[in-house]
Amino acid sequence: MRYLPHTDEDVQEMLKAVGRKSLDELFGSIPDGCRIDGEIPLPPALDEWELKSHAAEMASMMKPETTVLIGAGSYQHHIPETINNLMSRSEFLTAYTPYQPEMAQGTLQGIFEYQTYTARLLGMDVANASMYDGGSALAEALLMALRISRKKRTVALSAAVHPHYREVVATYLKPTDFEIVELPVLEDGRTDLSGVADLDSLAVVAVQSPNFFGVIEDLEAVASVAHGVDALAVSCFSEPLAYGLLKNPGTCGIDIACGEGQSFGMNRSFGGPGLGMFGCREKFTRNMPGRLVGQTVDLDGRRGFVLTLATREQHIRREKATSNICSNQGICTLIATMYMASLGAAACVNWQDLITARQNILRMNL
Hints:
Helices cover about 35% and strands about 15% of the residues. By secondary structure, the protein is of the alpha/beta class. The chain has a single domain, classed as 3-Layer(aba) Sandwich (Aspartate Aminotransferase, domain 2), CATH 3.40.640.10. The longest helix has 18 residues, at about 105-120. The radius of gyration is 26 Å and the shape is elongated. This is Glycine dehydrogenase (Decarboxylating) subunit 1.
């Protein structure tokens, strides 16, 4: 790769302007003892991770090394340079929203790929792309569970769930007659489920895993206890990377999984934006908030993408809407898709297809 943008013609023109015939003549005033004769003794090349570690080590020599514990689930993660490079392309970095399918195939395909990866990661049948962050995703999941449970009014929420998420839930449910019951935490850091069976009119049991204390909850036990009293089981998270190592919520019998996806390639940016990830069982799809993009074919048999489900008040009658979430977080979902494609077990995204689709959008808009 060339790092100097000057052509030979540029160099000759600059030398002529300063009255020199060659670069050797330009630097002739520098004593021979101060010049390097031969190859520059550079160290061997480093990969991306090693280079960043080396830069951090040098930086630590100029300032005290400190550990910042503020964040509570929002931390600096490694972001591959491929993501920063791709997201800087004009085909991707746009605020255009997917209302007209004939104009937004690139946007819709990006969301479809995101849904595919998210569903695989969480072990769910379907996933949407329209939650603001982890807190709103959990609140929407609990409202969804209450709609499914119809006349039941009680929500059992673990005290080990992120306190910010619990505040959002409390704000959502405050104007309603729904009741929030806080489940205590045992000495081992896991949620105490022993009192669940005694709760009246219980609609849903919600925990976080890994929880706010970093403890891995027994999601199979949570699902078993919830289903044993005819309630739904909801699991949230603030670190989705955990499910690259742990059994995912779907495998454990959880009905709705949701949480924060900031660690999937997004900078903290002084607190936002985040990405609310959300997945559920197929039988609950029509109660799911936000948007759902599907794949189809046109009359000529060509693959296309459409907004399959949009159960929000801008699309249907307000009394039938499941949510008033208005942003599809398109750029954030695309970053997360790139992250999962870059670091996941298998890639299902064809970047050239996405780039071509977005270029077509730009041409049509122009």
